[in-house]
Amino acid sequence: MSAIRLLVLGAVRRHGRAHGYQVRADLEYWGAHEWSNAKPGSIYHALKQMARQGLLHAHEIAPSTAGGPPRTEYEVTEQGTGEYFARLREALVTYDQRGDMKTAALGFMVDLPRAEAVALLKERTRRIEAWRSSVTGHHLPAEGVEQLGHIGEIMNMWIHTADSEAAWTHGLVARLEDGACTFAGEGPPFVGALAEGRENPYATGERHPGDAR
User: Fold this and answer.
1) What digits encode the pLDDT tens for the residues 115-126?
2) Calpha distance 210→72 (Å, rounded)
3) Which pLDDT score is estimated for 135?
4) Are 25 and 194 contacting, i.e. CB atoms less than 8 angstroms apart?
5) Per-residue CA distances from 59 to 21, 42, 103, 197, 213 (Å)
C-alpha cells in the first residue's frame, strides 16, 4: 500500500483547507519526496482522485488580483476523516509493510489520543514477535542457519530486522508513556506544517502544471 493517500489526507487535515501547492510544499518540507512516492504528479492526482471519491471536498476559489486561473482548495470530508484514521491505525500496527507507510504513520500518530497510539504500538510489537516466532519455528533448521548456506543470511537479516524494530518500538512506547510528544486533546500541537508565505528550504524547485491550480 502506497503512503500517498495517507500523506495527502493528513496534510490537508493539518491546514483545515489547503490548495494543492500547499500540500506539495508541506510534503517536501517533511522530505516525503525522498522517502515516498510523494512527487508532484502523484500529489495532484491523489487530490483529484480523492475529491471524486468523496474523501475530499473541492472548493474553487477566486483567482488572485494578479490574475491567473482559480485555485482549488481541498477540505477533508467526514468520509475522508474515516479513511485517514483507518489508514493511520493500520499503518501503526502492521509490521511487514513499506517503509513509507511506517514513516507516514509516525508523522501523524499524534493525531490520535496518546493511549490509543500506545496501544497500537504495543500491538505492533506483538505482531513483530509473532512473525519472528513463525520464522524461527518453521523455517530454521535445528542445526542453525549455517546449514542453509548463503540463504541462511536471508533468515539472519529477517530476524535481525524484526529484533531491531521490536526494540525500537518498545523504546518508543516507553518514551510516549513517559509523556513525550503532544497528542490529540493535550494542548497546542507541534507545528509541522509550513507557514503560508514562508520559503521552503527543502523545496525541490521542480515546476509542475498543478502548482498553479
Assistant:
1) 999 999 999 999
2) 10
3) 77
4) yes
5) 14, 20, 30, 21, 11
For 27-80, the pLDDT digits (tens) are 988 888 888 888 889 999 999 999 999 999 999 876 655 556 677 999 999 999
Cell of 6: 495517507
Q: Is the pTM of this model over 0.90?
A: no
Mark residue 42 as left, alpha or beta (left: phi above 0; alpha: psi -120 to 50; beta: remaining).
alpha
In angstroms, the CA 34 to CA 211 distance is: 19
Q: How far is CA 160 from CA 93, 125, 152, 156, 184, in A?
A: 19, 14, 12, 6, 34
List of residues 6+ apart from 174 with CB closer than 8 A: none
What is the rounded CA–CA span in Å between residue 6 and residue 170?
A: 24
Give the cell for residue 86. 483507518
Rounded to whole angstroms, how far apart are CA atoms 43 and 6?
11
Q: Alpha-carbon distance 121 to 91, whole Å? A: 10
The set of cell numbers assigned to 170 is: 518498545
Mean predicted lDDT score pLDDT of the chain: 84
Selection from 185, 194, 181, 184 nearest residue 11 by Cα = 194
Question: Mind listing the pLDDT tens digit for each residue in 154-202?
Answer: 777 888 899 999 999 999 999 999 999 999 999 987 766 556 666 665 5
For 83, list phi and psi in degrees, rounded to 5: -65, -45
Q: How far apart are the first and last CA of the chain?
A: 27
